[in-house]
Amino acid sequence: MVQPFDETPGVYSIVSGYTGGTTVNPTYEDVLTHTTGHTEAVEIIFDPEKLPYETLLDIYWQQTDPTDAFGQFQDRGDNYRPVIFYTTEEQKNMALTSRKKLADSGRFDKPIVTTIEPAQTFYPAEDYHQEYYKKHPENFARNHARRGAFLQEHWEDM
């Protein structure tokens, strides 16, 4: 999830981490137990004058399988569920509109299950998770193959 946003003009920072759960300062190992309630997420700080929120949503939809409530590609479990966290009512409304537009487009045969939820406390992941795709290009390439095939099937016309 980091790479496409990391390469987008108008993004000041992108941090991998965890949000939405009950454990304070969770670690990756904590989140993997599926007992914390946290979802792995990215926090994106951006300039809305250079990068409209709607564009962030468009990028997001093209990185996930919005029809899979139980993970993303090779990453399985509730901590990988597809969710958009919003910080304002305006973002909430834009995300809901964007999800409806995608659902109505007929691009997917299954229902869109991505949830739209209020942002909660965000806990940055450990340093070794930050910019993972740059630090571990071999894993990124292997994992991106599945994602890439799916995205090509559903977004090749973009």
Domain count: the total is 1
How many β-strand stretches?
7
- N-to-C series of helices and strands: HEHEHEEEHEEHH
CATH superfamily: Peptide methionine sulphoxide reductase MsrA
Strand order of the largest sheet: 2-1-7
Secondary structure tally, helices:
6
Could you tell me how far the N terminus lies from the C terminus, measured between alpha carbons in angstroms?
A: 18 Å
CATH class term: Alpha Beta
Helix content: 25-40%
* Uncertain ranges: none
Q: What would CATH call the architecture? A: 2-Layer Sandwich
Overall 3D geometry?
Answer: globular
Structural class by SSE content = alpha+beta
Mean pLDDT: 85
Provide the CATH topology: Peptide Methionine Sulfoxide Reductase, Chain A
Please report which band the strand proportion falls in: under 5%, 5-15%, 15-25%, 25-35%, 35-45% or over 45%: 15-25%
Compact description:
The protein has 158 residues and is an alpha+beta fold. It is built from 6 helices and 7 strands. The chain has one domain (2-155): Peptide methionine sulphoxide reductase MsrA (Peptide Methionine Sulfoxide Reductase, Chain A), CATH 3.30.1060.
Structure notes:
By secondary structure, the protein is of the alpha+beta class. It has one domain: 2-Layer Sandwich (Peptide Methionine Sulfoxide Reductase, Chain A). The protein has 6 helices and 7 strands. It has helices at residues 2-6, 28-32, 53-61, 89-105, 132-135, 137-155, and strands at 11-19, 39-46, 71-72, 75-76, 83-86, 115-118, 122-124. The strands form 3 sheets. A 3-stranded antiparallel beta sheet has the order 2-1-7. Strands 3-4 form a two-stranded antiparallel ribbon. Strand 5, helix 4 (89-105) and strand 6 form a beta-alpha-beta unit. Helix 3 packs across helix 4. The longest helix has 19 residues, at 137-155. The protein is globular and about 40 Å long. The mean pLDDT is 85.
